[in-house]
Amino acid sequence: MSIAAPADWKTLPGPTDPEGWIKRATEVAAVLAVDAAARDRAGATPHEEIRLLKDSGLVTLLGPAEHGGGGQKWPTAYKVVREVAKADGSIGQLLGYHYLWNWAARLVGTREQWEQVEAAAARDRWFFGGAVNPRDDDVVVRDEGDTLVFSGHKSFSTGSKVSDVTVLEGVLDGTDKHVFAIVPSDSPGLTFNDDWDNIGQRLTESGSVTLDGVRTPWAGAAGYVDKEFRPRVYNTLNVPIIQLVFVNFYLGIAAGALETAAAYTRTRSRAWLHGGYEKATDEPYVIDAYGDLTAKLWAAEALADRVAEEGQPLHDDPDAVTPADRGRFEVRVAAAKAISTEVALEVTSRIFEVTGARATATGQGLDRFWRNVRTHTLHDPVAYKRREVGRYVLTGDLPEPTWYS
């Protein structure tokens, strides 16, 4: 399968405003949509898809403009993820995770560190992966003078073989201190095990990774100065940021499912023989279902956009973020996560009610939307997101920062 980017992406200046970047994402989605179902069935490593993201400039969206980046803010990045996910949920996830890991140096590191990383990433169009599964605590980091050595195993490493660089995380030997570092994905000792074989998000390269003495300079340990970590409240925004990424590719997948189903209903679905209507589009229950699902999706999208705008001031002045600011944002993200999960699962399962039995044919690929949402929404239990919101409403308690809250 071949994926071709429009030639003018390489010869013309890139977008300069949010609207232009969202339009570019829509163009990328149109390319991906052509053979999305076939690529999902093939499950091949998405090298060409990532090349498409690079050629389009989407990988540099959050990068500094002076180094060739898009110079955009997080609300635009979330919308871009949503647009790409409409066509291909796996590539939407990869892009969203890339944005977080590209941002990780700024999130956790010192100013000198993140300025260096962001300049290089924008200039060379790096694609980021991450081996930071917090439920695996078996990566140990040894201090060898000026060098850190990572050894162990992570169950998941999204982006693995298609990434240029990988964010590693482990615990400093003999302490409870976590260390993040960015290393080239072809570093000696870093082995991606190619064992991702799940029902959905098949192209995310999310299999396990083995770290066998992966070496990196102490200077690359994010946020450490003279081997001591300098904490900020802003460091803890990784969870609400990535959860809002989840929200947006869930909603993108749902929107793609609804658009694909509607096209099928308009062109191929047949009216029920006992209903008295000539066309499926005249069936009252079909009309009602599309209205119901669309209203729910639009409402969830509106909440996601509102929460993204509420969070942007935290990025605009990272040193001023307080625990209360962070906690309130996390509660709002939790609400969006709960609603987006519910809506995406409902949309992607109910589309079959309004497309008909023939729409279940493998070649149609409508099942991929549900499989993708069902797979990733199990990342962490949505009940715990509702609990964060409920506790805040009843007691005013804000969630304490953890790997999942």
From TrEMBL:
GO terms for molecular function: 3-methylbutanoyl-CoA dehydrogenase activity; flavin adenine dinucleotide binding. It comes from the Bacteria. Pfam families: Acyl-CoA_dh_2, Acyl-CoA_dh_N. One of its GO terms (biological process) is L-leucine catabolic process. Residues 30-116 form the Acyl-CoA dehydrogenase/oxidase N-terminal domain. Residues 245-379 form the Acyl-CoA dehydrogenase C-terminal domain. Gene3D superfamilies: Acyl-CoA dehydrogenase/oxidase, N-terminal domain (1.10.540.10), Butyryl-CoA Dehydrogenase, subunit A, domain 2 (2.40.110.10), Butyryl-CoA Dehydrogenase, subunit A, domain 3 (1.20.140.10). Keywords: Flavoprotein, Oxidoreductase. PANTHER family: ACYL-COA DEHYDROGENASE (PTHR43884), ISOVALERYL-COA DEHYDROGENASE, MITOCHONDRIAL-RELATED (PTHR43884:SF12). This is Alkylation response protein AidB-like acyl-CoA dehydrogenase. It comes from Sphaerisporangium krabiense.
